[in-house]
Amino acid sequence: MKTYIFTSSDGGTYKVFPQVGEYRNSQTALVLIDTVDGSPVLTASISVPEIALEKNELIIKDYSENEGVLNFLVKNNIVKPLGKYIENGLITAEIVELISENHWK
Fold first, then answer.
1. Which residues contact 64 (CB under 8 A, 6 or more apart)?
2. Does residue 1 have a pLDDT over 90?
3. φ and ψ at residue 83, rounded to 5 degrees
4. Range of the domain at 69
5. The predicted structure's pLDDT at residue 55
6. How far apart are CA 45 and CA 29, in angstroms?
7. Are the beta carbons of 25 and 51 closer than 8 angstroms?
8. Using 50, 70 and 90 to split pLDDT, how confident is the model at 89?
9. What is the pTM of this model?
């Protein structure tokens, strides 16, 4: 299990590992888990059922309490930006490719 140091938008610092899962609609989910107590620090992805995604694609929540998570994921080679975006209510979210865990830094 590869671990990373994540600093949240409120300044909290956590030692985390990414955990890949799946939403009920089969879209990929990504959660950052605290290595100290095993609790979720944040869910980095969102599910938008009406958007068709490839199996290795996910939508990143990089706003509100998750601000900065996209930069963290890209910097650590966990996801790759695809230059694709969705409008969901009042926000724009980026669709990214999940890089194989074998290639994470």
1. none
2. no
3. 75, 25
4. 4-103
5. 87
6. 6
7. no
8. confident
9. 0.92
CB burial of 39-49 (b: ≥16 within 10 Å; e: otherwise) equals eebbbbbbbbe
Rounded-to-integer distance, Cα 88 and Cα 105, Å: 31
Q: Is 104 left (phi over 0), alpha (psi -120 to 50) or beta?
A: beta
Alpha-carbon gap, residue 20 to 28, rounded angstroms: 7
Place of tokens 């300044």: 11
Question: What integer best gives the mean pLDDT of the chain?
Answer: 93
User: Contact at 8 Å (CB) between 11 and 20?
Assistant: no
Q: What is the pLDDT of residues 29-75, one digit of tens each?
A: 999 999 999 999 999 999 999 999 998 999 999 999 999 999 999 99
Specify the number of domains making up the chain. 1
Q: What is the per-residue DSSP string for 14-50?
A: EEEEEEEEE-TTS-EEEEEEETTT--EEEE-EE--TT
